[in-house]
């Protein structure tokens, strides 16, 4: 059986993998190993079109969207540097935003990738979905998500950015809270948080994997993603969160970097009761 051939076929569904008895761990391994890149994002992502930002501003200005939504789209654009707006510039051209009257089975927002429509109930869900829009490359890649893989990592980090860009890092949006804590810890492995942000807008999960593996093992990376996925679909008590956070904390200890260790301890103290 040729896993490589399977994985490059973007249309294959998770069920097909299961039928072929390839474990999720193998899929994660393969997804990470597929393209090894050692360069840092800010060295890699050099495609600065200085006119692009102005183009996006013009599109937002001309659109028939509500004033409040335009203001939020501009706020996001302002935060992003030119390197990170390729997907945003493409998707904004046809984006539609619709307010839903109520949440559907506790889902407060949806980004319909195929039709490029954001459906939302609250301001926090609207801005969260805007980040999915701005990091949506194609039917396979969205933020850190690769089809069915890295969903938990993607939701967690999307919500980290949602709080950071639109609210306040301490503001509790009550969305993906466990994933947010783990993503904040994971971010400590990077020298600057901007490196992880750049990777998000370039759908570069390999960069996350390679950075993680400087201090952690492949098995630990799989374990982390298994729980990140688990937390978005399942209600669980805090014990599983604590043990996953501890594993991450131990990996951060291996950096021997006092600043990172201190920050990580602070996050654990603050968020994990
Ligand atoms: Zn989401």
What descriptive keywords fit this protein?
3-stranded mixed beta sheet; 273 residues; 15 helices; binds zinc ion; globular
Helix and strand run: HHHHHHHEEEHEEHHHHHHH
Q: What would you call the shape?
A: globular
Ends distance = 46 Å
Give me the side-by-side strand order of the main sheet: 1-3-2
| Major beta sheet summary | 3 strands, mixed
Q: How many discrete domains?
A: 2
The total count of helices amounts to 15
Estimate the mean pLDDT confidence. Answer: 86
Ligands (ions, cofactors included): zinc ion
* Beta-strand segment tally: 5
What is the beta-strand fraction? Answer: 5-15%
Based on helices, strands and strand pairing, what is the structural class? mainly alpha
The radius of gyration over CA amounts to 19 Å
As residue ranges, the low-confidence spans are 1-13
Proportion of helical residues: 55-70%
